[in-house]
Amino acid sequence: MRFVLAIICCKLIRLALRLMGRGGTALPGKVALRICPDMLSRLARGVTVAVVTGTNGKTTTCRMLEKMLRDAGKDCFANRSGSNLERGITADFVSNAGLFGRPRRKLAVIECDEAAFRRVCGELDPAVCVVTNVFRDQLDRYGEVTHTLGAIREGLDHAPHARVCLNADCSLTASLAPCAPDRVRFFGVDAPLSGSASDVSDAPRCIVCGAQYEYDYHTFAHLGGFRCPKCGYSRTEPDVAVLSAADLSADGSSAEIRVDGEIYDAVVDLPGGYNLYNAAAAIAAATAIGVGADSAVHSLAKLESGFGRMERFALGDAHVTMVLVKNPAGCDRAIDFVRSLPGSLTAVFCLNDNLADGTDVSWIWDAGFERLFEGEDGARLRLIVSGTRAEDMRLRLKYAGADENAVRVIHTTGELVAAIAEEKGEVCVLPTYTAMLPLRAELAARCGGKEFWK
After folding, report:
1. Which terminal Cβ of the chain has fewer Cβ within 10 Å, N or C?
2. pLDDT tens readout for residues 58-88
3. What beta strand segments (E) does 289-424 contain?
4. Among residues 92, 360, 377, 392, which one is catalytic?
């Protein structure tokens, strides 16, 4: 009885919230779990679940994987809103269920927060787990990378039946392989990525013995062909590998990808070298579920970005791209993207310090904003800052090389959208999570975009 009551309450609350124009992504699940604490595990019975976790790339990898499954004729559902804690995941499972809990679709792609992963895996008993990477992120919540790694390791311990897809190029992520002996599929990039800097590393020393890593090549941050000269811990040859990449541009890239020994030509319809990692992760997961490699690779040619992740809007004469940033590694990749845009452009940095962003914003001092002002780049760049910590962002840009008097400070969403509409050409907006939500909603309303949960 409690189970059915929880489903009814969850569905009614979500319906009411969406009629009010709100997402209803977390509260319905929170109420449902209060009524029936074990309902997620009950709803997951009979559903084949792929769970994606990691610091960066979760949402985009899920979108890629979801498309691969649908293109292969496999009907699935996903927590597309990015509400990736237990309550948000529960709400989406309820949405997929009838009044008595019977699932409508029996395949799910679930994005999961790293800290919630340990509990969610125990509830879902996933068939596939993907760990994209591990970087320093939200120090006030996660602590150092070893704490994040420990949470993910505990989650894998609770997923004894899962095929586990790990990033071979991330020394931290690859160290999880012993959690799933004989069940691991590695993915990675076999060559350096042009346009990506070898910047500050979150894992300079061997996780096994503490010696300094040596690298045959870097892709970015601590990712690449690592090896420990002391104990021998090193990168494992991936099952899914990006062998080479060309035409890395603001529109996407072409690549040569090896999947279980066979080589395929791929077009990845999202910009940024880091999206090649997301593509490889999605292919590893899709083929683990049973999708043919050729079909999975072909799906990369027509992708839809996740909300706020390389999402584009046309606002007057401004061509707006929104790129969520939340930590140094991800911000560095966004800076690479800004630098790749041609001609004069406007960069908008929106920095908040709410709980969902991480209240510690000191990470901005580790991101390489200096690269924005190298050579002639600085002369073509117009700068706007916004958010609760706009002045901190302005100060960071000053020390990176900007003329602080030329940095425009805007505090409200309405004023910011109006300012963006006055720009011409490329505008790149780099917001933290809670800064992104109202700004994206306003842009979607003016430009005809989808609601973030769709």
Report:
1. N
2. 999 999 999 999 999 999 999 987 788 999 9
3. 309-315, 318-323, 345-350, 381-386, 407-409
4. 360
